[in-house]
Please model this.
Amino acid sequence: MLLSFLSVKTRLVGLILVSSTFVFAQPVRQNVVLVIIDGARYSETLGNPSGIYTPRMKSLANEGSIISNFLNDSITITKYGIPAIWCGSWSTPKDTTVNGNSTQYATVPTVWEYYRKHFNRDSLNAFYLLKQLSSPWLPSYYPGYGPAYWPSYILQGWSDTQVWQNARTKLQTHHPQLTVLYLADVDAAGHSGNWATYTKAISTADSIVGVLWDFIQSDPVYKNCTDMIVTNDHGRHLDGVSTGFIGHGDGCYGCRHIMLLGIGPGIKSNYTSGSTKTIPDITPTIGTLLNFPTTICSGSPMIEILSPVYYQSVDTLNFGGVRIESSAVKNIIIHNLGGVQLSVSYNEDDSGEIEFFPSSLFVAPHDSEFIEVRFTPTSANYFSKQMILQHNAKSLSDTIIVTGTGFSGDVRRIIGLNKGWNLLSLPVNLPDTRVSSIFPSAISGAYEYGGNYNQVDSINYGKGFWIKFGDTDTVNFNGIPVSEYSVDVVEGWNLIGGLSYPVLVDSITSNPADIIEGKFFGYYNGYFAADTLYPGAGYWIKANQAGVLFLK
Model:
């Protein structure tokens, strides 16, 4: 994701220089699952007011959006309708033979090819789940796309129920970002001519859609970040037309009128669009939801059913200690993970010590902006403010708690030194961090660690370092206290410092999450496992990958 605001701002307030600090968090990956139910007539699905055959989808429609006039606008036959859904075009497929079996391949790129090429993703991120076939319809060989970007085909099961059971296992195991699930039984049941068989197949497909959505909402990877779209490739003849529900294939409204249901964070809630949309509009809508281009599609994204997806970098913001009448600035990142513009506003109740800029902003689809938070304490007190952001995403508002403490001067920290080597860090911010100035009695230089030991002339705040003394001693530190700090770490062992106050090891967080490997180790005439990081001490910690540790 490209951030449009990566330059760090500075401001002058009176004679005080204010520096901005960005607070970053990794946005949640968005996902899409497309379900194709072959050959269900609209009058037995969302077009039935009672929802007798599709109670789960009828209920889900209240949580999502439907297109009430969604059409197959070309050939109402499966071998044309299915490829048109995942191509976004009615380009005629070509006949071919694979392993002695006749099949067809698409002549324009498919939704999986657009996705995988744009993001350079592995095939395990793009699935096509359907029943066992000797030779399924194939994606394209279009120049620049083709087999290198095809999905993972999962051909398992002989019924919709078996297809779903196998699909659930694959989804749990691999968590693809883009999934197409094809349920074929309804069309075959309709052709049987038995009404009860046909409607039972619709009810089974409905229950599969329901348990799929339940799975999405219970799965920690998919929950609250996955959109599901449900549609058909064609309908069936209206009663009184040709063979009625038994057949399809002409241009009657029963064959053309199909359903489109969408639900998820990127889709509006309880919304019905009466505009006419068609099968080729599905692929570009998925591209808009996941932010990849679908340049050769003939359809257009169904913007009217889409919602922005609001995501903020933090829920709480702690400035720690700030000197009275000076200012500190931090920036909260607002991400829009959805396919349409996000608008955000904040109504300031009073200026006070904690202020927010700007009062409103707009965030383009799949982009980010920031809100600047400024803390200017007027007294030596603790300050707290609840910031309520109103927006046009589905939750309509989100809250951020901002806190900080004013202080009137420097704090004092006294550090005891042992004879021999000591593992230390700076307990306060100092104007002069030269080793010779801070530790005039040292009998060695100061050594920081970055894969190798490096002697430094000046000490970096947040770093741990080794230094040697000829006798026991104490050092007084008078400086600006630090109550919150972020420390960059590399994969492997890192030597870090603490804050001006004790920090519980269990309170330390990281980005990415869970990069801390093992315990923190301090040194006092030998190594020990630490449950608290104390001011002035240095500590070893091992990380399983590069990232940032947050101490507060």
Summary: Residues 195-218 form the longest helix (24 residues). The CA atoms of residues 68 and 274 lie 5 Å apart. The chain has three domains: 10-27+310-407, 31-305, 411-551.
